[in-house]
Design goal:
Elements lengths: L3 E3 H15 L3 E5 L3 H4 L2 H6 L4 E3 L4 H13 L3 E7 H7 L1 H9 L6 E5 L17 H6 L5 E3 L4 H13 L4 E4 L4 E3 L14 E4 L4 E5 L3 H14 L4 E5 L2 E3 L3 H10 L3 E8 L4 H12 L4 E6 L9 H7 L4 H12 L6
Parallel strand pairs: 2-3, 2-4, 4-5, 5-7, 6-7, 10-11, 10-13, 13-14
Antiparallel strand pairs: 1-8, 6-12, 9-11
Helix pairs in contact: 1-8, 4-6, 9-13, 10-11
Length: 315
């Protein structure tokens, strides 16, 4: 298995498999099929693929209509367009009537890179998470994206599935059973809990190994589902560890960090710091350069963890 693969390719490969066994699966795209990889599905199942053109609002409305006819549409485009350009349709045509539409946003996060701020979706999780009825999935590598696609197809109701553009590290700890609403404990520890989602799972594990060299045992909880959040896993971690650091390739506003902080504040208050894009727009650059520039690396998780563990708040 390659050491790095694209989450969007895991999605595309799963779609082909689903299309072979489930004739109710249809795929829609907004004239970016080569970039989203849905062109792979089009080649195998051309009669069930619909290019709606660069009309993302129409894309979601067409998907809603197909769902009302009993089909299971996967409406696919770049994450920024699925959630910001088509926000009204996402809310009123899909989430409000609770339709069985799977909205798939590729090119999520700062690592979209050279396309620049206009295409780097760092607010999409927040927008989808705020919608009633919406399930939000953010897988961390190729295999988990493959599993998340199958889970989305099985789920009855609206789903927002967020994928990336670049090739990301394969994380064997992520593999196994995928259940919507369930976190995965990737590593045990009782000093600190690192909460990750998406591609930050890899960085969280690297950070935990580095913290071990400082004498701390960090638990790594990975959340491939942002909504519904696995509050049981969080509550257990709050009882067994002293503090939390969240890590996401998304704005610290409205994403995993705020979801975790909100739950803990109401149920089991604990010191917490957030690693993510710090309420700024991105810029053009290579994906890896931008992950460095915006502080989305293991070293940044380590720095925040040590600051917490060595503070009076957790003494």
């Amino acid at each position: 298995m390659p050491s790095r693969q694209q989450t969007r390719q895991g999605y595309a490969d799963a779609l082909i498999e689903l299309g072979t066994t489930r004739p109710e699966i249809v795929v829609l795209d907004a004239d970016v099929a080569k970039a989203t990889k849905t062109c792979d599905f089009e080649r195998r199942h051309p009669g069930r693929f619909f290019n709606c053109g660069t009309q993302e609002q129409n894309l979601l409305c067409v998907a809603a209509g197909l769902a009302l006819e009993g089909l299971i549409p996967f409406a696919t485009t770049f994450a920024i367009f699925a959630t910001t350009r088509a926000a009204d349709q996402l809310r009123n045509a899909i989430a409000y009537p609770n339709l069985n539409v799977k909205v798939v946003g590729t090119h999520g996060g700062i690592s979209t890179g050279g396309d620049g701020a206009s295409h780097q979706a760092c607010e999409d999780i927040a927008m989808a998470r705020a919608l009633p009825n919406m399930t939000v999935l953010v897988p961390g590598d190729y295999e988990e994206a493959h599993q998340a696609t199958f889970a989305a197809a099985r789920h009855s109701g609206p789903v927002y599935l967020r994928l990336g553009r670049d090739s990301y590290p394969i994380v064997p700890e992520l593999h196994g059973e995928f259940a919507i609403g369930r976190a995965k404990c990737l590593r045990g520890g009782n000093d600190l809990t690192i909460c990750t989602t998406g591609i930050m799972a890899h960085e969280g594990l690297v950070a935990a190994r580095e913290l071990e060299s400082h004498g701390y045992q960090a638990r790594v909880l990975h959340f491939p589902t942002i909504k519904p959040l696995d509050t049981d896993a969080l509550l257990l971690a709050a009882r067994e560890t002293r503090a939390f650091v969240t890590a996401e390739e998304h704005s610290i506003v409205g994403g995993l960090g705020e979801a975790v902080a909100g739950f803990l504040a109401e149920n089991h208050p604990a010191p917490l710091r957030r690693v993510g894009v710090r309420d700024v727009f991105g810029q053009s650059g290579h994906g890896n350069e931008l992950l460095d520039l915006y502080g989305l690396r293991a070293r940044d998780i380590v720095a925040q963890s040590l600051a917490l563990l060595q503070s009076r708040a957790v003494a």
